[in-house]
């Protein structure tokens, strides 16, 4: 998929676990895992906003377009 999610890298940089992120964002571990593994087909703006708020990042830090 040409759009990739950099969730793993951001979590490592912040020293945060997926469980901790789940609690802070209010999403289930299953949904975050789908996003993290690149299996998600879409993301809501409200979810993107919550992730950016908790991870203190911009949407471009979280999403990457590879063009392939």
TrEMBL record:
Q: Which CDD domains match?
A: HTH_XRE
Record-linked SUPFAM superfamilies: lambda repressor-like DNA-binding domains (SSF47413)
Q: PROSITE patterns, per this entry?
A: HTH_CROC1
Q: Which residues form the HTH cro/C1-type domain?
A: 7-62
InterPro entries associated with the record = Cro/C1-type_HTH, Lambda_DNA-bd_dom_sf
Name under which the protein is recorded: Helix-turn-helix transcriptional regulator
Identify the species of origin: Gluconobacter cadivus
């Amino acid at each position: 998929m040409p759009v990739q999610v950099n969730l793993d890298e951001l979590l490592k940089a912040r020293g945060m676990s997926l469980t901790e992120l789940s609690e802070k964002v209010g999403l289930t571990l299953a949904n975050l895992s789908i996003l993290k593994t690149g299996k998600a087909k879409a993301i809501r703006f409200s979810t993107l906003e919550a992730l950016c708020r908790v991870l203190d990042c911009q949407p471009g830090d979280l999403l990457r377009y590879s063009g392939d």
